[in-house]
Amino acid sequence: EDKVVQSPLSLVVHEGDTVTLNCSYEVTNFRSLLWYKQEKKAPTFLFMLTSSGIEKKSGRLSSILDKKELFSILNITATQTGDSAIYLCAVEPGTASKLTFGTGTRLQVTL
Amino acid sequence: ETGVTQSPTHLIKTRGQQVTLRCSSQSGHNTVSWYQQALGQGPQFIFQYYREEENGRGNFPPRFSGLQFPNYSSELNVNALELDDSALYLCASSLQGRADTQYFGPGTRLTVL
Question: Inter-chain contact A98–B41, Cβ cutoff 8 Å?
Fold first, then answer.
């Protein structure tokens, strides 16, 4: 059974801090790993990673995948209060677009 | 904001009742996936529909069923509701085989009393 474990479960930081969120996984026939941001209800897509060692970057957010060690990290630099959300990691097997999600990391950025 | 819409927004039912949730896909998308998100948990895959056929199912009992229509919109039906069915139900539309195109709707919050 596919499995995703995220850590920490929750995190409180001050505006301007840098945070690193962790995601480890087990999946049959890995196809991709995805990161989402969930603020209220609908998760919104951040990154999809398929290859090891290649960093994906969007503004202050970046992510990298290690397929050998089966984990990914999501970095957020110079955090802002608008970054407060739940960050979800999901893996996609090679068979279908069935995503298995982790529990998420709840990030709170304070002034 | 995505083009995926869901109705109703909130719903309260009692144990044993049946419920139908609806989802309209993003324009151009041909695949719909449904997820259940319990409080404090990540979304859990229920099933996916592609070309009006079920195309993958998670660990949910048969009382969870679905439909996809020719316009790619979809319904999720749950029979014999149980208290543990209380959750946020998320619909996501995508292009088949392209998880990075998966756009989620705002969800339906179901409460079972």
Answer: no
